[in-house]
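Here is the promised in-class demo. Please do not try to memorize the tokens; focus on the logic of going from shape to residues.
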């Protein structure tokens, strides 16, 4: 019955080779397993002629035992140990029958049929175990495939949920930005109405001051060329001194009156609601106008405040297509922040500090840049990334809304397609750079 041992080896090696077809181990073991199969076939045909009849079963079972041991101790076949263990009963039956046949031939002949039945039963046990193993493997494969499908479905759904989450987060950010812009626009509109009302009220008496100053200057000129000439020389000299002083005073009144008139006109222009239309604008003149407007606005609140204003305007950067009202708000906000910073630093240093605000423009091949620099307190690193966030402010309560830089950033980046950058060193300076594309 040695046929069953060689057949078990042949089928086992074939089964092992098939189980490795879908893995990287097939390259390593393919030749070995194939060679083993044909060695089993060759031994089956040769064992009868090479060995005594009584030793055939023992040789076959020893060959089977060697193959099972070799495969069992290989880590690569750890998953197939169930197939190997199914051959143990056949090894036991073959070993017992082989030893009995060699050592006690008479006893073997007496129970030969029983030994044969044991061989058949052991071989059937192998086949049943292998069939059950195949069924289990198929079920495992089905479960693995289903698991892979579910994992793919979960991954796909996770991607969809993540995308929806990101879209919702982006929508929330846009809504928050829109809300901030609406709040700022409402505040600017209210401020614009108040500014316009005050400016109109100031405009009328200011016009009277300028007009009467000019008329008075003309009357003094007439007085010098008329009645003054009829006075005696002694009185005439004294009267000329007084008239000259009056003329000088009136000239100063006229000069400062016209300056006040330009400030009022700037306030009126600033208070106008933007129509959203871009115009070709003199960027140098606009920056200078809002620099003076911001400075005099701060001095109106604090008579003791003084600062050095430095400007360096590039003549090539004069004409830029912008929305004047919106861009003026950006400039005014940057100037107000600069003057606030240097004013706070001056108070902290008890007058030993010279406040300076610089405004420079530069024309580049593809853009125009405006630099607003102050030698104030600078911006701390921990708040630098937050300065463009709506409602974020480092000013005390009631002195800042936290919307100025946020709205300015949106006006420059979204309204004009430009860029707003900042360069700063805490305690030393802060510089905002506006870059506008050249159309």
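The designed amino acids, position by position:
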């Amino acid at each position: 019955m040695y046929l069953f041992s060689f057949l078990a080896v042949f089928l086992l090696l074939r089964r092992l080779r098939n189980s490795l077809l879908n893995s990287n181990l097939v390259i390593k073991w393919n030749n070995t397993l194939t060679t083993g199969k044909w060695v089993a076939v060759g031994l089956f045909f040769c064992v009868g002629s090479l060995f005594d009849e009584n030793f055939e079963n023992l040789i076959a079972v020893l060959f089977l035992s060697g193959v099972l041991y070799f495969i069992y101790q290989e880590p690569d076949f750890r998953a197939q140990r169930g197939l190997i263990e199914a051959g143990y009963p056949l090894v036991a039956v073959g070993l017992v029958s082989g030893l009995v046949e060699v050592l006690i031939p008479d006893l073997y002949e007496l129970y030969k049929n029983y030994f044969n039945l044991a061989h058949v039963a052991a071989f059937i046990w192998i086949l049943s175990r292998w069939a059950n193993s195949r069924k289990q493997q198929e079920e495992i494969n089905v479960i693995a495939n289903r698991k892979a499908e579910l994992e793919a479905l979960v991954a796909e759904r996770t991607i969809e949920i993540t995308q929806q989450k990101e879209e919702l987060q982006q929508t929330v950010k846009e809504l928050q930005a829109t809300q901030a812009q609406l709040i700022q626009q409402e505040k600017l509109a209210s401020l614009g109405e108040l500014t316009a009302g005050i400016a109109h009220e100031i405009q009328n008496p200011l016009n009277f001051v300028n007009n009467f100053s000019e008329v008075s200057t003309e009357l003094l000129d007439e007085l010098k060329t008329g009645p003054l000439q009829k006075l005696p020389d002694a009185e005439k000299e004294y009267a000329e001194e007084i008239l000259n002083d009056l003329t000088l005073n009136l000239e100063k009144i006229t000069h400062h009156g016209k300056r006040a008139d330009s400030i009022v006109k700037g306030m009126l222009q600033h208070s106008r609601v933007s129509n959203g239309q871009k115009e070709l604008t003199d960027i140098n003149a606009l920056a200078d106008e809002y620099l003076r407007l911001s400075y005099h606005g701060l001095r109106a609140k604090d008579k003791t405040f003084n600062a050095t204003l430095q400007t360096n305007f590039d003549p090539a950067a004069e004409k830029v297509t912008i929305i004047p009202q919106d861009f003026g708000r950006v400039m005014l906000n940057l100037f107000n922040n600069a003057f606030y910073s240097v004013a706070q630093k001056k108070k902290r240093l008890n007058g030993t500090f010279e406040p300076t605000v610089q405004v420079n423009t530069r024309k580049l091949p593809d853009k125009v840049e405006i630099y607003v620099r102050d030698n104030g307190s600078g911006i701390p690193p921990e708040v630098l990334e937050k300065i463009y966030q709506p409602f974020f402010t480092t000013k005390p309560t009631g002195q800042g809304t936290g919307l100025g830089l946020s709205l300015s950033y949106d006006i420059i980046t979204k309204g004009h397609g430009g860029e707003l950058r900042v360069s700063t060193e805490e305690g030393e300076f802060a510089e905002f750079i506006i870059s506008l594309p050249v159309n």
